[in-house]
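This section describes the prediction task in plain terms. A model, or a person checking by hand, is given the sequence of a single protein chain and must write out its three-dimensional structure as a string of tokens. No templates, partner chains or ligands are provided. The sample shown here is typical of the held-out split.
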Amino acid sequence: MKTEEISRILNETNLFAGTAPATLARIGEIAILKECKAGDVVYDSGGQALDMFVLVRGLVSFAMGANVGHANVESVMKRHMIFGWAALIPEHPKRLGTAKCLEPSTLLSINGDQVMELLRDEDPKSGFMIMTRLCSMIANSFIETR
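The expected answer:
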């Protein structure tokens, strides 16, 4: 997948929409395309959160870990949704749940440290916008599970 196509996909996500084109291109250079089969686990609850993901094609379920205090919280990720956002949180918290492919899926895996370094050093304006949106995503995800 070409960097231009990855940039377009990123710009269609809630988190990265409206980010400076040069910054989207740089994030696209960091992204690694991953193909998953139905049943593949993207990450497990309690694992270290190093990478975030964009679902390019397919379906991925996210089930909240039992140790988080929520009972049976599960959601399904659809095309161009961001998940694994904990990778953008400093000091890499543990994963809150398990992400698993429900069907053959294509993902973009993006290293959180590299994104944060890029935003801090090259485009703090976009970085502020992205982190503000991330805060809203986090707050909304916990409101929806209540």
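For orientation: The helical segments are 3-11, 21-30, 112-122, 124-144.
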